[in-house]
Amino acid sequence: MKPTLLVLAAGMGSRYGGLKQMDGLGPSGETIIDYSIYDAVQAGFGKVVYIVREYFLEQFKETVARKYSNVKCTDGSPLEFVFVTQELNKIPARFLPVNPERQKPWGTAHAMLMAAEVIHEPFVVINGDDYYGKESFRIAADWCRAHAGSEGVYAIVGFELDHTLSESGGVSRGICHYDAQQHLTDVVEHLAIQKNEAGEVWGDNSATGEHVQLAGSDLCSMNMWGFTPDYFTKSGTIFETFLEQNAQELKKEFYIPYAIDCMIRDGSARCDVLSTPSQWFGVTYKEDRPAVVEKFAQLAREGVYPTPLYQ
Questions:
Q1: Is the entire prediction scored with pTM above 0.70?
Q2: How do strand 47-52 and strand 80-85 relate by DSSP bridges?
Q3: Long-range CB contacts (< 8 A, 24+ apart) of 193-200?
């Protein structure tokens, strides 16, 4: 069984100021998505599903056809690519028309629902503008293979908080809480997380408003999740309930952690917390870009990745 990689690439990246998904950061102009696909293939994935916006769909298709045409899976078969689009009006008909003043998409969990018709096997969801590391993909792929045929059992790949901070400013992170069996109990969003001069990590708990000290070893969500395909049916039902309350809102979004939290609370699913030793990095701010470029250059110098990644 070859799991599928679902890439969330519909966001514009407002803080960064452009399409991060297309930005060449590697020594030979590789994008972060290029590295994610390279790592996923080595971990045994067989298909990549991109979620994009309609206005840059053709640009994405052309880029994929050019870069990845010769990429083979570990069993020698061609890597499969599928494209789906996330748009505001792609919601159940009874909630249309959408408020004409709304501009924001409906969020990451809505984006995932766009892939319901093209994914029928265990799959992993990632952001298109985050670097997750080889070990993270191996861990996620192993989980998928172990849960083929399962239902109501999902997973989150948790990164140590220390491995996800930005030197350019505070970041928002969902801190994972879990029980003795490593089953997720909730994800609590913390804002403006950064180290002080003493090396302590502090952030603002979004639920309580408190400014709290956090441990560098705390596991946090970087939006890398493992699912079995029954997730789509469960999430679709929760989305309809969400729309019943928020269909005319201008900014409310339907996020993956919210959907998972609903399932945990009603007992319809459990979520395993997987820990990765990998260092996350990404371009949250424009000021992060030079450091990320240097990190990819260093990985190439160390032989972790060939350059160019794709011939």
A1: yes
A2: parallel
A3: 193/161, 193/165, 194/165, 194/166, 194/169, 194/170, 195/165
Q: How do 184-195 and 201-205 pair as beta strands?
A: antiparallel
Q: Which of 253, 259, 293 is nearest to 11 (CA)?
A: 253
pLDDT in tens, 92-136: 999 899 999 998 889 999 999 999 999 999 999 999 889 999 999
Instruction: Give the tokens for residue 211.
Output: 């400014």
Of 13, 18, 21, 6, nearest to 111 by C-alpha is 6
pLDDT given at position 153: 96
pLDDT at 22: 65
pLDDT score for 167: 80
Strand boundaries in 236-291, DSSP class E:
270-276, 281-282
How many residues are listed for the chain in this entry? 311
Question: Can you give the C-alpha Rg of the chain in angstroms?
Answer: 19
The pair phi, psi for residue 111, each rounded to 5°, is: -55, -45
CA distances from 1 to 42, 79, 80, 142, 154 (A): 14, 14, 14, 10, 17
* Domain annotation for the chain: domains and CATH numbers: 4-301 (3.90.550.10)
DSSP letter for each residue of 102-129: --S---HHHHHHTTTTT--S-EEEEETT
- Crossing angle of the two packed helices 32-43 and 134-146, in degrees rounded to 10: 40
Query: With 70 as the cut, is the pLDDT of residue 229 above it?
Result: yes
